[in-house]
Amino acid sequence: MSTISIRLPESLHDGIREAARREGISINQFIASAAGEKLAAWATEEYLAARARRGDRVKFEAALSRVPDREPDPKDTI
After folding, report:
1. What is the DSSP string of 5-74?
2. Cα 35 to Cα 43: distance, rounded to the nearest angstrom
3. What's the average model confidence in pLDDT over 29-47?
4. Global confidence as pTM
5. In this predicted structure, what is the pLDDT of residue 1?
């Protein structure tokens, strides 16, 4: 476990304190959770960008052309 000291604007600190109170957790838990969520979001964005770079429009359209053109099952209609 590591310890860090950060400077926050008072308004942000107040908002974090209130959110942590509402959730019934400590400010430390709230900030650790928020940091973890942000890292996960960045990792997901990087993963999706890498997948998009590997995409191939021609191969996609070739695969799509093999799908039968028919009406959806009645259970699948809106």
Report:
1. -----HHHHHHHHHHHHHHT--HHHHHHHHHHHHHHHHHHHHHHHHHHHH--HHHHHHHHHTS---PPPG
2. 12
3. 97
4. 0.66
5. 87
Q: For residues 29 and 20, is the Cβ–Cβ distance under 8 A?
A: yes
The whole-number pLDDT of residue 17 equals 98
What tokens appear for 28 in the block?
A: 């430390």
As to burial, measured by CB atoms within 10 angstroms (0-12 exposed, 13-18 middle, 19+ buried), residue 22 is exposed
The 3-state DSSP class for residue 76 equals helix
* pLDDT of amino acid 28: 96
- Tokens coding 61: 């359209």
Question: Does pLDDT of 9 surpass 90?
Answer: yes
Q: Which of 14, 42, 11, 17 is nearest to 29 (CA)?
A: 17
Q: Where are the domains of the chain?
A: 10-69
Residue 63 structure tokens: 């695969």
